[in-house]
Amino acid sequence: MQKKCNLQPTIIFDKVSKKFNRGYASDSLRDAVAEPFRRLFDKNGRAGQGQGRSKRQENEFWALRDVSFEVKYGEALGIIGPNGSGKSTALKLLSKILRPDGGKIVVRGRVGALIELAAGFHPDLTGRENVFLNASILGMSKEEIAKRYDEIVDFAELHDFMDTPVKWYSSGMYARLGFSVASHINPEVLLIDEVLSVGDFMFRDKCINKMKEFTESGVTMVVVSHDRHMIEKLCHKGVLLKNGQVVEKGEITYVLDKYYSGLSESKYKDTDLSSRRAAKDDAPIEITKVRMLDMEGNEKNTFLTSDGMKIQIYYRAKDRVIAPCFYSRIFSPRLYSDKGDALLNGTNTERSNLTFECEPGDEGMVELTYKQLNLLNGKYYINVGITPNFFSSNVYDHIDKAATLTISSNIEKGAGVVFIDHNWKVETRQKSQASE
Amino acid sequence: MNIKHGDENIYISTDKVTLVQRFKELLSYRTLLWTLTWRDIRVRYKQSILGIVWAMFIPLSMMLLFSFIFTRVVTVKVDIPYPIFAYCGLLPWQFFASATTAATNSLIANRTLVTKIYFPSEVFPISSIIASFVDFLVGSIVLVALIGYFYFTGASIVVSWTVFLVIPVILVQILFTLGMSFFLSMGNLFFRDVRYIYNIIITLWMFATSVVYPMKVSTLKLQKILHLNPMTPIIDAYRDVLLRGKVPDMNNFGYAIVISLAVFLSGWIIFYKIQHKFAEKV
Question: Does A17 share its domain with A123?
């Protein structure tokens, strides 16, 4: 039967579209009852003008639009793209949680999902009870669970904790048990969504190996992740999504290159900030320009590890602002934390005790100097913004990926993301002749 | 929605799902159903000392309360001893009320699962109902004891073969409860107010049903409206088959069967047809 599957694609996404209503959720009856009246009054008030579009329609947006791809039997597909590009929606459509508003999806085989591993856990129940609960949520029968129970516990390495309520578990233990249950369901199609962002890295490697085993044994996979290495390691093919549409598809290395080179091209444009900014029209202060310079003052976007760098943030005040706090944050798109790309360094004017006041109409520039970047080979980007003060969750202005930089470094600087000043030394003991 | 095409397990997003297919799918998730029910029961009684005894204590204490009110404060004429009249109404009513109330919140309470992993969401309201049914079974121990006591002390109750008819009566009540639960849990997902409104309704509903007094006590005009309530013939049927040795009046009980079936089927079909909207709402 599995041989037969070789002939036809296991997953077909045929011109799939999905729309959502953003912001407008009629959770209370009050809103739902008020809505038709509001529409009625709107019509009466502005008769003759372009009417008929309800609040609901205005808030509609397409999370996916005419997305087509196929995954062959035993193949692993990586879906990549920036946040909000529709990756997770695609996965939810595949797992049947959502139904498309247009197009057609075909999935052959038993589907397993590694999505939010611990979603089915109940804190008051023991590890053992939760294994049964979670496995049954994933569609396993009692007999199947009983048969694989020991394997699940072995893989999670939690033998001593199975009779402990999971509320006493650490988040790492939670993730381990969750992954272990989910990876023992014997799926024919496996959907994976950002599951490995928790847990220690030893276990992470174990998980990646387990997933490699899956592909080798003919399981078809679809992976959504920000973790470039994981995608590279697991997937054969890739689809790049942007604003709900397919931008690139093909071999995974090709698609990844397109994505990451696209990041640096499109993000280094200090002229047009409007598309990436968060400032509202009534913000008292806004950023007008961001420049990235070397120590000599030349605009530049490639640096060496030992280089210094300056960031200039130009602003214009529309109102009086007492002590605005400017921040700058360096991120690595190669590293992923549970909050998104990993923050390598964040700094702001308040941390450095720099305070000043702006009067309406004031324009100026704030300069930040990194004496030595100490970053290794790769691409990085910088977000900048202004807040009322250090602790405020309110933002006057924020520019996502205001600048993107490429670092090149020599091999002696080391591997990884940061350069940590170091040197090696040998002490040889004569008898054993061992050297460290 | 997984439909077997020959040997293959294949999902096609544009295919329509029939009631039979849905039932088979639900059946394939029966392990989940039992596990969830077990979880509900475990969690509910885990931190209480009396545990499952509460299932007897709640209808029993209500029976004592109403016995005091309706025999000492005001007198209600009933053909059977009032305590057992009341308990025989309160027990199934308590089952209905607690099952539907728990089911109303069941989808919201499990929203993380509803939005993350696919399976037939009916398992949540259904497991709430099974958990309440367990309470009902525990509470019936008291009912059996009461029947035994009044029977052997020679009170005016008749126990005959009709006690076996209690099984179809329970089934009809479960169908109605299921249907109501499907509507309520969906409703609460789209409008959170449903839960609060239903809390009020269920209290009023009890007094519009022959739970603690027979419907004959109300005025004729009111009776016509109250006749639409399918819970009254169901509760009356319990007393007929258990305490009066009578087959339920098929005029009234037949009406309850039709309504229960209609509510159940329409509720279930709507529920699974719009399940894919749930994840967008919670």
Answer: yes
Cα separation values, A306 from A22, A365, A406, A417, B103, Å: 46, 26, 13, 13, 63
Burial B177-210 (b: 16+ CB within 10 A, else e): bbbbbbbbbbbbbbbeebbeebeeebeebbebbb
Question: Which residues of chain A have a CB within 8 Å of the CB of B43?
Answer: 122, 124-125
What is residue B92's three-state secondary structure?
helix
A98 to chain B: nearest residue by CA? B276
Which residue in chain A is spatially nearest to B277 when comparing CA positions? A98
Same domain, A174 and A284: no
**pLDDT digits over A101-153, tens only?**
988 999 998 888 877 666 678 888 889 988 988 888 888 888 889 999 999 99
Residues 6+ apart with CB under 8 A from A5: A73, A108, A109, B8
* Contact residues on chain B for A92, CB-CB shorter than 8 A: 279
Binary contact (B11, A111; C-beta < 8 A):
yes
Same domain membership, residue A370 and residue A239? no
Q: Count the Cβ atoms, other than its own, within 10 Å of residue B103.
A: 26
Please give the pLDDT value at position B253. Answer: 94
CA B171 – CA B174 distance, rounded (Å): 5
B36 touches chain A (CB under 8 A): yes
Could you tell me if A17 and A157 lie in one domain?
Answer: yes
Give the A:B interface size as CB pairs under 8 Å.
113
Strand order in the sheet with A285-293: A285-293, A309-317, A363-370
Q: Average pLDDT for residues A378-404, to the nearest whole number?
A: 86
CATH code for the domain in which residue A147 is found: 3.40.50.300
A49 in any annotated domain: no
Residue range A150-198, pLDDT digits in tens? 999 998 888 889 998 888 888 778 888 888 888 888 888 888 887 665 5
pLDDT at residue A435, as a whole number: 46
ipTM of this complex: 0.79
Q: Which residues of B touch A220 (CB under 8 A)?
A: none
pLDDT, position A60: 78
Q: Please indicate, yes or no, whether residues A235 and A352 belong to a single structural domain of this protein.
A: no
How many angstroms separate the Cα of B260 from the Cα of each of B162, B176, B194, B265, B266? 22, 4, 21, 9, 10
